[in-house]
Amino acid sequence: MSSLISSSVGEEQNMLLLLEVAGLQVQIAGRSVLEDLDFRLDRGQFCALIGENGAGKTTLLRAILGLQPVRQGSIRIQGKPASELRGQIGYVPQKIAFDPNLPLRTRDLVELGLKGNRFGFRGFFGNTRSAVAAALAAVDGEGFADQRIGRLSGGQQQRAVIAHALVRRPPLLLLDEPLANLDFRSTNTLVQMLGRLVREEKITVLVTAHDMNPLLPFLDRLIYLAHGRAAVGDVDTVVQDGVLSHLYGYPVTVLRHQGRILVLPEDPRQGMETACPAHREAEHGEPGP
Ligand SMILES: Nc1ncnc2c1ncn2[C@@H]1O[C@H](COP(=O)(O)OP(=O)(O)O)[C@@H](O)[C@H]1O
Ligand SMILES: [Mg+2]
After folding, report:
1. What is the pTM of this model?
2. Which domain holds residue 44?
3. Residue with the nearest Cα to atom 6 of ligand 1?
4. Segment 45-65, tens digit of pLDDT
5. Residue 260 lies inside a defined structural domain of this protein
6. Which of 136, 181, 216, 272 is most buried by its number of CB atoms within 10 A?
7. Which ligand sits closest to the CA of 177?
């Protein structure tokens, strides 16, 4: 009896499992960028990939997309090797710039998403017009559907490229720094829209960012990358002094204030013999040499 119960629990877990990364190692130009990464994401989870510049966030997304050769380890999506699913994962790369005079409307860009695959759109999800309309609705983009893409605000452009990535209803959507260069209001609009997508469409969303704060109200999981290694779990488990100090390899303090989180590395001047003379004078009242 107990074996029956455990096998049905196991099957249920497998149905939920969407992305499984195991023992992943990536080297670029002979330098280790990701070391032994292990994590899994379930269907309908909102996950942030947090790390400083150069931590390896884009590299990890490219590895999941099959664009970055891996040295060792496996990446499986819905139980299949990620390389077999190329073109079926939604991806919004960082820094897309559109010329204001580009004669391309938002709805044209979204429709191009149906044709991006070399096999073409196979009509699984209804006709082209309804697929484009659904993707535009998912990002609240009907109001700017007929405007030129290069003339939209930054936040609207980001929603347009997300609709482009969503139009084929991928089970997994990867977004690289979608909040960079957005003002406070556009950031909130975008994050709420992504949260709704995850809840209502059961899409798994993985978002890279260097600041986790705008995402916090919606996050199910957090992957914190530093020095090629990762801490993975829910926000409260990962974002702790001990966990992050271990990851960075030096003391880190986590401050929480009114639902916001600040991660502070150790004072970089600590242990420095040759501090700037002006600092020494200001702090200790002694002039420099
Ligand atoms: N094409 C490349 N050639 C050499 N080094 C690279 C290349 N792409 C990435 N890197 C290095 O890999 C590391 C991780 O980069 P990246 O994944 O872009 O970090 P992030 O997206 O977190 O800012 C960095 O140290 C970066 O310099
Ligand atoms: Mg990057």
Report:
1. 0.86
2. 14-248
3. 28
4. 999 999 999 999 999 999 999
5. yes
6. 136
7. 2
